[in-house]
Amino acid sequence: MAVLKNGTELLTNIIASQINSHKRFGGVVPEVASRHHVEQITACIDEALVQAGISAEDLNAVAVTQGPGLVGALLIGIMAAKTFAWAHHLPLIPVNHMAGHMMAAALVDKIEYPAMALLVSGGHSELVYVEKEGSYKKVGETRDDAAGEAYDKVGRVMGLTYPSGKAIDELAHKGKDTYHFPRAMMSTHEIEFSFSGLKSAFINTVHNAEQKGEDLVKDDLDNLAASFQTAVLDVLIGKTKLALEKYPVKTLIVGGGVSANQGLRERLANEITEAKVIVPPLRLCGDNAGMIAAAAYIEMKKENYAGLDLNAKPSLVF
Ligand code: KG4
Ligand code: ZN
User: Fold this and answer.
1) Which of 19, 26, 273, 301 is the most exposed place for a label (fewest CB within 10 A)?
2) d(CA 283, CA 224)
């Protein structure tokens, strides 16, 4: 729950994480996620207003994520936002979760348009061309797994707890790319990602070694992590460069949980010369309400409001 002032000033940005409840299942359990949302949401609304030092009457609008995401969790946010908007006579603004990841950048720097956004999260890997503020056009995406999903699946084989992106990132910095896993679709001139082949190659390497009596996860974890991460980053950087070649822009925005990756941040800084790069600070990379408010501000200027019949769209796309 966040309170945003004048489009860029976050008065508060509360994150009620439920990762601990999902860890032992190795991924998010939808029913558990919904129940936690119900338990937390009212307290979060109250706490956000207290932290921001305002009352509901001071607000101009209420924004909420419409999708993409788990329908049960989305519905709880939407019900709470509708109720709040109705009770306090406020306009209601539906927001695309991925536009939120993109607009986290607006909270820390000035985005000059046209812009390109590399959005990499647990559910999505996509490149979005933003000709002007609020006009989004997806120009490339993953054919199969998202980058974050690949991190989490490979992490499971490595015996790491969910979500494992951060842990793999840390291990990777201690190792080298000794396994040379495949980089999918790098020879095509299409702006498309694919990470499922890399995931399978990783799992097969570990299992084949196991059959020969070797335990790579125990003996060579750093190099496994470095090899996996280098393959992911080669593809992310390569395809981003291709997108920047096809669509010249002034700003490259990077967003989503995987944008917290230190390896990715280093390579963006060293290898992207085509545009100014904005990568939000770590606190704004993962899911948070501040980014949703930032994306909503653009819609508010256009009075893109929803009625109380607003419904969740679990598969919402740009
Ligand atoms: O955007 P996000 O918080 O939630 C979704 O909308 O999916 O992204 C979560 C994803 C997880 O897959 C997690 O493993 C990944 O972001 N992640 C990372 C890092 N930190 C989080 N992946 C790579 N390196 C990291 N440092
Ligand atoms: Zn997200």
Assistant:
1) 273
2) 28
Q: Are residues 54 and 139 in the same domain?
A: no
To the question of whether residue 288 is assigned a binding role by annotation, the answer is: no
How many domains would you assign to the chain? 2
- Any atom of ligand 1 within 6 Å of the Cβ of 123: yes
Torsion angle of C-alpha atoms 119, 286, 123, 97, degrees rounded to 10: -70
Enter the pTM of the model.
Answer: 0.97
Residue pLDDT, tens place only, 152-181? 999 999 999 999 999 999 999 999 999 999
The verdict on whether omega for the bond into residue 91 sits within 30 degrees of 0, i.e. cis, is no
123 & 25 share domain: no
- Strand 125-130 and strand 136-142: the pairing is antiparallel
Which domain does 237 fall in, by range?
A: 110-279
Determine, yes or no, domain membership for 309: no
* 166, 265: one domain: yes
CATH classification at residue 29: 3.30.420.40
Mutate to test the pocket of ligand 1, among 119, 121, 126 (most ligand atoms within 8 A of CB): 121
